[in-house]
Amino acid sequence: MLAHIKLSEITKSFGALLVLNGVSIEARSAELIALIGPSGCGKTTLLHIIAGLVPPDSGAIYLNDVLVPNARSHVAYMQQKDLLLPWRTALKNALLGPEIAGEDLRRAEAYARQLFEEFGLAGFEDTYPVQLSAGMRQRVALIRTLLSQREILLLDEPFGALDALTRAELLEWLLRAWEKSPQTTLFVTHDVEEALKLADRIYVLSERPARVKAIMTVSLPRPRDPTHPDFVHLKAELLRTLRSP
Ligand SMILES: Nc1ncnc2c1ncn2[C@@H]1O[C@H](COP(=O)(O)OP(=O)(O)OP(=O)(O)O)[C@@H](O)[C@H]1O
Ligand SMILES: [Mg+2]
Predict the structure, then answer these.
(1) Which residue's CA is the nearest one to ligand 1's atom 23?
(2) Which of 27-36, 132-141, 143-152 has the highest mean pLDDT?
(3) Structural domains of the chain ordered from first start
(4) Which of 14, 46, 157 should be mutated for ligand 1, with most atoms under 8 A from CB?
(5) What is the mean pLDDT of the chain?
(6) The whole model's pTM is what?
(7) What is the mean pLDDT of residues 170-190?
(8) In the chain, count of helices (H) and strands (E)?
């Protein structure tokens, strides 16, 4: 299942605070898109609008070229806060999507157990969220998102609470999962290297109110080596763009 999504001139204020100032972004089928921008510029708000949690003031959203109010029933959304249910075990939290969708739970559970293994969570399947570290909870939330089988993935800083090593590991794992079954993905990150390792295109957002400051296409073959001269060059350019007014 693949979908493409396009946002056109999205504007949003909270009271007198203008947060999004005509933001247009597009994720084509199976594309990995990174959104990068200063803290508080409106990245999470943008994902909320796509997921239908917040209505835009103006602008349009197109799903597969059809105008829609939002893409609620088409997205799997990993929020910035992990939002695990405290009364369910890690495994049962991960299986929430398939359970709600009424899917074959035995198959979903087998896949979930495999993901727990690959994400370094083997042995923690029956643990409750309160007993897990922040990074472990984040991994459970990521597994839950990957299991929910929607056409579009929204990932809000999926590796935010992890140490550098675990981050790099999970990033490589996510990339392998995506290469096996490419999904249209929009992810928010503060990390330029993460964006350059993963993304087909990077949208650089300005300070609030957010507008698209630049779009960088990254056509290097994956897996990308951060020491490769082309990578180093793009990283310098991306940092320059981020810092420019
Ligand atoms: N429901 C809301 N009501 C009022 N203001 C809000 C609401 N949601 C977000 N804001 C404001 O909108 C602005 C953008 O917030 P948002 O969470 O989208 O930023 P962000 O780019 O995701 O930041 P970060 O990188 O720190 O996660 C902030 O000033 C925030 O205070
Ligand atoms: Mg945010």
Answers:
(1) 40
(2) 27-36
(3) 5-243 (3.40.50.300)
(4) 14
(5) 93
(6) 0.94
(7) 89
(8) 8, 10
